[in-house]
Amino acid sequence: xNTDQADSSGTQGGRRTSVLVVDDDPHxxxxxxxxxxxxxxxxxxxxxxxxxxxxASHRPPDVMILDLGLPDLDGAEVLRELRRWSNLPVLxxxxxxxSSDKVDALDAGADDYITKPFGLDELLARLRALLRRVPxxxxxxxxxxxxxxxxxxxxxxxRDGDVVRLTPTEWNILELLVxxxxxxxxxxxLLLDVWGPAYQxxxxxxRVYMAQLRRKLEADPGKPRHLLTEPGVGYRFMP
Length: 239
Prior knowledge:
Layout: E1 11-12, E2 15-16, E3 18-22, H1 26-38, E4 42-46, H2 49-58, E5 63-67, H3 75-82, E6 90-94, H4 99-108, E7 112-115, H5 120-132, E8 142-144, E9 149-151, E10 156-159, E11 162-164, H6 168-178, E12 184-186, H7 187-194, H8 203-217, E13 227-230, E14 234-237
Parallel strand pairs: 3-4, 3-5, 5-6, 6-7
Antiparallel strand pairs: 1-2, 8-9, 9-10, 10-11, 12-14, 13-14
Helix pairs in contact: 2-3, 2-7, 6-8
């Protein structure tokens, strides 16, 4: 990576822009972290695809920088799974120079593509271009449904003016759903995010917790309007 200095601002709406960098090369991860932080970005890192998907759902960043060659999942697989529930902008970087690799990454959901080695000025310019079209998430700190409101900043849910007490697991499920309104979130992604990779076949966990959330939040839990099931596939939050 060429580390020539380039003017850039890692702020968005008065706050530091968050970047999730995904690469299995520890030296590149360290270099990108130092460089991006020096330009004002808040940086998290992941060295494999599973960790990246969990991080993106728990603490959604403003943008992801994703390497294609990961030890557990190919970067294109990470992109396809991410696009099931998130519009997070993704800048792919890779040592693969073939046009077919670029096409595959873009078809899987990448927003832009840069090959190694790359110059810092180009990387920062690509990040700025991606972020210009993304609304500041701080401008939408709450999500309102007909019968309840979710305050993402305060991690609090209210119904008819009263605070609804949720368990940490209930909150984690609800947060992932409301951060992706009207989008299908698969059972596998919810299980991976909330319980971890060892539980990705335990769909019964989700049925129990979704029933609890509906009892607490839906006006008619038996006929939910907001926390919907896509049988055998996943769940969807409809505002």
